[in-house]
Specification:
The chain is α/β, with parallel strands linked by helices and 71 residues long. The chain has 3 helices and 3 strands, in the order βαβαβα.
Length: 71
């Protein structure tokens, strides 16, 4: 799952927590323009598989997905 940290009515933290409540094994890659280290640390602590900084290229996305899935 690729999940943006900033979304309309819900934020990525809330959605990530909901995903983890249902499935602890699914891979969740967070994308965001937020550069704060503490945000990254909190996302990883909540179970995010990885983090991708916006803006990113297709190559960056491909690499992050491959890393997250162990491909």
């Amino acid at each position: 799952i690729t999940l943006d940290l900033s979304m309309g009515q819900e934020d990525g933290f809330t959605v990530l927590k909901g995903i983890r409540a249902v499935d602890k094994q699914v891979k969740v890659l967070i994308v965001s323009a937020n550069t704060q280290q503490e945000i990254y640390d909190m996302l990883i602590a909540e179970g995010a598989t990885g983090f991708l900084m916006k803006p990113f290229s297709v190559a960056d996305l491909t690499s992050a997905v491959m890393k997250a899935t162990g491909s």
